[in-house]
Design a protein that fits this description.
Length: 406
Amino acid sequence: MTAATPLLRNRAFLSLLSLGALNSTGRWLEMLVIAIFVFERTRSPFLVASMLMLRLLPMAMFGLFGGVLAHRFQRWWILRFASTSIVVVAFGLYGLADAELLNIWHVGIASFISGMVWSMDFPVRRTLMSDIAGPHRVSNAMSLDIVAGASTRTLGPVLGGVLYQSLGMASAFALCGVLYALGLVILLAQKQRAAEATTANLAIRKSLGQGWQAMGKSPSLPGILAVTIVFNLWGFPFVSMVPVFAQEVLHLDAAATGLFVSIEGAGALLGALGLSIFARTEQARYLYVGAVILYCVMTFGFAVNSWVPLAGALLLAVGLVSAAFGSMQSALVLMNAPTGMERQMMGILSLCIGTAPLGLLHIGTMADWFGTPTACAITAAEGMVAMLLVLWRWPDLLSEQPLREV
């Protein structure tokens, strides 16, 4: 395949796209089931948020090293190891649930291990996709990945809620294991690319240092990464409260909760499809910044409302703008990274995404203290203020994205 080959006809790109879709379906299914299980057992929004916090904690602890791993080792083999790990974890949860031995600490450990695998997605799978696409098609590649991921955010919660309600939790974890196993099969079928360059003799400390130095040479990257931090501290944690809100405020059962949570994924899918058709690379910064601001506005509106149809409409809007953020985040980092430092920058991006556990701790604690709606409203307001400060510090974020020369 040449660089001019359409992405959807490139076998390696399709393998990575399919892997992401299968893993994402399992991930969203698993997150919904764990949230329902923990809330039914404990009635604690904080513990529900803690499960997602454990899933994202590896981003903070190891995200930066993910970029180094992607530079030092064959990335296809890293993905194979990661996929094998989550297959084992998923079927382990199935076995415990089927034997009625599953406890909160089991799902906590499983969430952390799954999070370690998730933390490899940005610096490994997405840099491989970027390499295949090339500089002028990287935004298209990321948009296609977001389209695939957004469709799973609709499918995963629906499957999880229906299975939990009708067949029990064990069946949901069994399906997770099957989905992850299919992803592993796709990876094993992909031929190893022996020509992939590595830097095995480069010290980790030196590689990380080069990444930080390279970031300082870009006038835009610090601001782009600051927006990611704002979203993960005050935006994304809202997702952990949606199942709690559905059960605690809207009084929905497990199946209805899964359907309700999937509305956000449906919005993300619509947004991603629209972006893949109409968005231009030059608009990337506007879409990225505007998405975070609108996300905070929509989640604030969601928090102060208890009418199911309006809550659903606002959740759909949240999904729409989250697609813009997700599509542009990796693309902007890759387009603004100094040449040859893309993997290190994706590792630093993973580290910034790893700030989400602090946001989850914040929203979960407030939800236990003041109630879920109040906690969501406060974090949304804080996010709006934080975005104003970021734009004051980096006003060039409200400008067109320059096209990178090749």
